[in-house]
Design a protein that fits this description.
- This protein is of the alpha+beta class.
- It is globular.
- Helix 4 runs antiparallel to helix 17, helix 9 packs antiparallel against helix 10 and helix 17 crosses helix 18.
Length: 940
């Protein structure tokens, strides 16, 4: 059969697709582009990927399929020529704190294997190389080193532990041994022998005393076997004349102090296994410590009025009775401000105390007895966090804690034994803290420093590690370290890591579908990413990319443009063909690609209000003692290659400082020396790309609080009033009006034991979320469910006469989201859409003109036209005197900024410096900056 050249889709009607037919060339790099919300993801993910997934599940046995329930066929007539499908999306990374770059890419698994097989162990006491012997080697060493000397062979039983050990001595005596060495002194075992139970002891049993010569060789062999059996693979030999111990072990052991390590396995180096994980932090590298500022944020308030947050206002409870006793004892009142309470009293309240005391009553002339028996608020919170079974109580306790680096393992996650296995002076923790470039260099020169035996053992492992490291370099992630947790990665970074892993798997004949892989990537690294996708295509795969980036579209073998508008105005194939064919057409995308239409560079730049926020001496992560000025009243753009330190400077340092100053935020900023000019702003708003909600219950209507107004409106209708329905009746989160089968979710979750959970439409309410009685209430002929399914564009017109609702909806429409439905599950919104909903939510509030807005890559998921709309909205904010700070790689945004701060030069350790700052025109003249090089072309 001839290999089919196309993936042929007929009659696709998923979401807003208008019954489209399309032929997508196989084994080519195909880009799907178009306005945000035009139907690109509906075609790529919800039609092609969903059908591929369904066909894969059809291959399972009938038994397995019964657990998968209704994985529905997408609304499409036919798809031909479909290969096995792998999707690489932005939102699929593991948010577990145990997942790191090393574990996702499998490099860490190979490192564990390398260290288990080819590393040398060193003592954590002396730093000397550990040794291990066979029984034969131990015998030969004793015969040569102690020839003609009288020795005692001992088996260690107890090392540095307290106890009287009476039973142990009885047991040793029953086994036929007569002497023991206790704390360095050989003693005969006596009846009822016991030690001081409160002191530390070392106990060894004397197995044999003999003169070492040829004739005692057989006896020595038996003695060694017995000693190793009793001493758990360790024995001690003492020269009777000088009493100096010498240690021998079958396992790895320090020849001077006798400490032993078990033989290494890959698990020894795993922070996800009890064998390797640090016991204090369980392999997380961080522990939770109570932050007293969260317990008592304002010391001017009294205890009575809720100054101690975990206790709340004074009430009639046992805890407050105890605090009243403490107040009697230390002579203060519960109405006193906390700052006026004596230090010792506050210490008892926080850390606990246990005492009885008497106080004479002046009026009656008698003494009263009081007893303080209080564990302390800090201990109470600690106990609740560690021992409570309820998740909500644990979450409550955690709200008073800060995450700090584990003191035992210093954030390395592993037991100290694992850290002392080294290959050429580096332990596994040193390697995972290197960035990928450094790691690649280290592995390139490693063989010259290894022994012949190590090179033979490690040959294959090194080949695997080098290949995988190279894939990370190829997708522009050379600045990452392997210990970076996956939850701290941006959507684009996580997606490119998965891409690197897929290239590593070398599959052939697969259809890869990618969702905007260029997110968070500087123009300089675009070519690396394109080369990686081309490599995937060249080994025989089909690559389908949903993308807006001009470079990517230019390098594609085939381009599909979906539009012409978004939402209901989209869902059609506007044009398709090669890049050269596409740009000749008269479409919106073609106009931007050919340069006929473009986002114009402003004639003048804003002057700002002359005030500044000055941040000095920032040293978090890779920042190199950075000092920077942020001019207020302007649109500021922070640029630089991926990993250069932009997010550390803004999201991890500047934002927590501003948040703490204005809203008493408790997130600790990264280290800095000084900040000036905070008095010039009165509000800070951080609008990031995190989801607006993590469950299907969250949607644009609930997030923007529009749904509260709509529910009140329904409760005021005559029919609802007659039935006595309150606004709660129209909520899908509480019992009463919702469908109880799906509890108002509209979908049922079918749990899989070996696959991700599957969401299927609720068969009772057909996805409407509410019960029949609630749906009977209508407002202007629409039920509450109809409204949730209405697009924001239609809803804006529908609620034209209700200003409260109309204002909020109009703002969402203005940021280009008119095509989203009011009840669209927030889990289905892209990062860019979620960010714009947050932006709209903020825009609908009254601003003061002194607000500081922070946006992190707001152009994610946006077409050229969407960017124009978004920038108009942001310009309105800046025109009112507010400061808008944007972290961005997109040149269309950068060229519109009034002021640019360029961070660089490279990513990771070679970044973290301010290269230049000023207007785009000033930046473009810089000779070093990568951003300047690309910006220059845009400003011409």
């Amino acid at each position: 059969m001839k290999n089919q050249e196309y993936i042929e889709v007929y009659g696709a009607r998923v979401h807003n697709l208008k019954n489209i037919d399309i032929k997508i060339p196989r084994e080519k790099l195909v880009v799907i582009t178009g306005l945000s919300g035009s139907g690109k993801s509906s075609l790529a993910f919800d039609t092609i990927y969903a059908e591929g997934q369904r066909r894969y599940i059809e291959t399972f046995s009938a038994y397995a399929r019964q657990f998968l329930g209704g994985l529905e066929r997408p609304d499409v007539d036919k798809i031909d020529g479909l290969s096995p499908v792998i999707s690489i999306e932005q939102k699929t990374t593991n948010k577990s704190p145990r997942s790191t770059v090393g574990t996702i890419t499998e490099i860490y698994d190979f490192l564990r294997l390398l260290f288990a097989r080819a590393s040398d162990a060193y003592s954590y006491n002396t730093g000397k190389k550990m040794v291990s012997y066979t029984d034969e080697q131990i015998k030969d060493l004793i015969l040569s080193d102690f020839s003609d000397k009288k020795i005692a062979v001992l088996a260690p039983l107890i090392k540095s532990r307290k106890g009287h050990y009476r039973e142990l001595f009885e047991q040793i005596s029953k086994q036929g041994f007569l002497k023991v060495r206790v704390d360095g002194e050989i003693r005969e075992i006596e009846k009822d022998m016991r030690l001081d139970r409160y002191k530390m002891h070392d106990i060894e049993v004397v197995i044999d005393r003999l003169l070492v010569n040829k004739s005692s060789e057989k006896r020595l062999e038996e003695t060694i076997k017995t000693a190793l059996y009793s001493g758990n693979n360790i024995l001690i030999v003492i020269d009777v004349h000088d009493n100096q111990p010498r240690y021998f072990s079958r396992e790895l052991m320090c020849p001077e102090t006798g400490i032993a390590y078990p033989n290494p396995e890959p698990n020894t180096f795993s922070f996800n296994s009890p064998k390797g994980a640090c016991e204090t932090c369980n392999g997380l590298g961080i522990t939770n410590q109570i932050n007293l500022l969260k317990v008592i944020p304002d010391s001017t308030i009294s205890i009575k009025n809720g100054g101690i947050i975990p206790l709340g206002d004074q009430k009639n409870s046992w805890i407050f009775k105890q605090i009243e006793n403490i107040a009697e004892r230390y002579n203060f009142k519960l109405t006193d401000a906390i700052k006026d309470i004596p230090k010792e009293a506050l210490d008892v309240i926080l850390n606990g105390g246990n005492e009885s005391f008497q106080i004479a009553s002046k009026t009656v002339g008698v003494t009263r007895n009081y007893k303080i028996d209080f564990e302390g608020i800090v201990s109470f919170i600690d106990n609740q966090y560690n021992n409570a079974e309820s998740t909500s109580i644990k979450r409550w306790a955690k709200s008073f804690m800060d995450e700090i680096s584990c003191a035992t393992c210093e954030g390395k996650r592993l037991k100290k034994e694992a850290i002392h296995f080294k290959i050429t002076d580096k332990n596994i923790s040193d390697l995972v803290q290197m960035d990928v470039t450094e790691l690649a260099n280290w592995f390139n020169n490693i063989e010259q420093k290894m022994s012949k035996k190590q090179v033979i053992i490690a040959g294959e492992i090194l080949k695997e590690i080098r290949t995988r490291i190279q894939f990370l370099v190829d997708v522009g992630l050379e600045y990452l370290t392997l210990d970076r947790t996956s939850k701290s990665l941006s959507g684009g970074e996580a997606q490119r890591i998965r891409l690197a892993t897929q290239i590593g798997s070398q599959l052939v004949g697969v259809l890869y579908i990618l969702d905007e892989p260029s997110i968070g990537l500087h123009q300089r690294d675009n070519q690396k990413l394109i080369n990686s996708l081309v490599k995937l295509r060249d080994i025989g795969n089909s690559v389908l990319v949903v993308e807006h980036d001009k470079d990517m579209i230019e390098h594609a073998d085939y381009v599909i443009d979906i539009g012409p508008g978004a939402g209901r105005q989209g869902g059609q194939i506007v044009s398709e063909g090669t890049f050269a064919e596409i740009i000749k057409l008269n479409t919106l995308t073609a106009s931007y690609l050919s340069g006929k239409k473009k986002i114009e560079v402003p004639k003048t730049r804003r002057e700002g209000n002359g005030k500044f926020i000055k941040l000095k001496g920032a040293t978090g992560n890779n920042l190199k003692n950075v000092s920077v000025e942020f001019p207020l009243g302007k649109m500021i753009c922070v640029t630089g290659v991926s990993g250069s330190g932009k997010s550390t400077l803004i999201n991890e340092t500047l934002y927590p400082i501003l948040n703490a100053h204005i809203y008493r935020g408790v997130k600790k900023p990264m280290p800095f020396k000084k900040i000036e000019g905070l008095e010039h702003i009165d509000k800070v708003i951080d609008i990031d790309q995190s989801p607006i909600g993590r469950t299907p219950r969250s949607n644009p209507a609930t997030y923007t609080k529009t749904f509260d107004e709509i529910r009140s409106l329904f409760a005021q209708t005559p029919e609802a009033a007659i039935r006595g329905y309150k606004p709660g009746r129209f909520s899908f989160n509480v019992k009463g009006g919702r469908c109880e089968t799906c509890e108002g979710a509209g979908v049922r979750i079918i749990e899989m034991n070996f696959l991700p959970d599957v969401h299927v439409e609720c068969e009772t309410c057909q996805g409407m979320r509410f019960n029949r009685e609630t749906l009977e209430i209508r407002y202007k002929g629409k039920s509450i469910s109809d409204l949730l399914n209405m697009t924001i564009e239609d809803a804006t017109d529908f609620f034209e006469n209700i200003p409260k609702i109309h204002r909020k909806l109009k703002t969402i429409k203005d940021v280009g989201l008119g095509y989203v439905t009011l009840g669209q599950q927030s889990t289905t919104l892209s990062g860019g859409e979620a960010q714009r909903i947050k932006l709209a939510s903020e825009l609908s509030k009254k601003d003061t003109g002194n607000t500081f807005y922070i946006l992190d890559e707001p152009t994610t998921g946006l077409h050229f036209e969407d960017i124009r709309v978004l920038m108009e909205v942001l310009n309105k904010l800046a025109n009112k005197g507010n400061t808008v700070l944007i972290i961005e790689h997109n040149l269309d945004v950068i060229k519109l900024a009034d002021y640019i701060i360029d961070v660089g030069l490279e990513g990771g350790k070679k970044g973290g410096a301010i290269l230049c700052s000023g207007t785009p025109e000033e930046i473009a003249k810089n000779k070093i900056s990568y951003t300047a090089r690309f910006l220059k072309k845009e400003l011409i």
